[in-house]
Amino acid sequence: MKINTELCFLFCQLCQEAVPTKEVQAHLVNKHVDLSYIFDNTCFENAIKNLVLASELPIDISGPRKPIHGLAIHEVLACDNCSSLYTSSKVMREHHMDHHKDLPLLLSWRQCKAQRMKSQGPGRYHIFWEVIPEEDEIQRPSSQAIMVEKVMKELQKELDMVEAPSDQRLVSPWLLTTRWHEYVESLNTPIRELCCQVALPQPQEKDFETLINMVELYFQNAVDLIKSTDELVLQ
Q1: Strand runs (DSSP E) across 8-157, as ranges?
Q2: Residue of 72 and 200 predicted with greater confidence
């Protein structure tokens, strides 16, 4: 056991989690049986008698902040709508449905590092808070860079919106006939994704190997019919 001098609590070096002073012996029995045989509770109590240790583990820790010495650092997912952090996308989806069901469900979440007091025990000790290790602090973007990135994302949304020109002379007869601009306007899909959906098949898409040849053959047959097609039909 060692002492975290910042928040005045004991932590287990092997488990890298906080241990209340009254639970030290139970912790050793449950997780480190070999060490529990040599643990002397009387000596332990005498040793910590003159130390200023918190009777309860702190629970009012918030992030982002620097890591707390002695506690394990976990890779987690961060909720964009609140401060909740979870270790799996499944739990994050459940959290979203319980607390943010009126908002669209994201396909992915921001990854970050976090700590918690304990992995077992009262629920309040399981709550993660975000931490930024020193090596990440150097690479962390400034608040100005974050603001610029946010503005650029908002601008991109505007650029992705499809709007038909107000001047009818700028709209091709083909577009007016197919009305594709009206169809895609109601879709909540980025233009780039729509373009990918109608792009030529990639080499790895084996199921569409003959599609290009079939389309070319179709158009060639149509071109061949031009000479024998009545002019009224061509118009």
Answers
A1: 9-12, 17-19, 74-78, 85-86, 110-115, 129-131
A2: 72
